[in-house]
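User: Phosphoglycolate phosphatase-like HAD superfamily hydrolase, Quisquiliibacterium transsilvanicum:
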Amino acid sequence: MPKPLIALDADGVLLDFHLGYAGAWERAFGERPRERDPLAYWPMDRWEVDRLDEAGRARMRAVLDEHFWSTMPPLPGAVDACHRLHDAGFELVCVSALESAYEAARLRNLRDRGFPIERVIATGNASETRSPKADAIEALRPVAFVDDYLPYLRGVPGQVHTALVLRAPNGSPNTGEEVTTLARSVHQDLVEFVDHWLAQEVP
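Assistant: Predicted structure for Phosphoglycolate phosphatase-like HAD superfamily hydrolase:
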């Protein structure tokens, strides 16, 4: 019998995109930014960084490269939380709104950090009313899907348990009526989701 699947987002669920962003800024501009708001949802609000002109944006894009996507640090407790799911009999797959060119880099990042994950599906992040991840989730048919961005739960099949990680509240998109209509459960981080999930009678 195949193991039941759990699909996990990467940035904000498994990996610390904010710290990765600060490192990329330092690579691009030679100075590590100071923290402005540790509770900010978006990295541009968390770090004391300038709004970039076109030349600055080009410099920043240049460092969002293979190195960036393969060296992001894990979020506290995330590796252990994944091992708890794995040891409980679940297969884990990462579904990330990432360009397909960096799919292998993301998988290498997860494996190097010790995550028990052998597959990454990069969906791109086209802005639509339906989640760019919905088709992948429909094809995978996982028992649960965990993401930290509420709009990415739109269009996910109803039989999938959708878990929303809230994380930082300031400027968060994870508010409003859709929290209750799209998310079957809500958690502060992946560790809290795993505590909740493993306490349930799941298939």
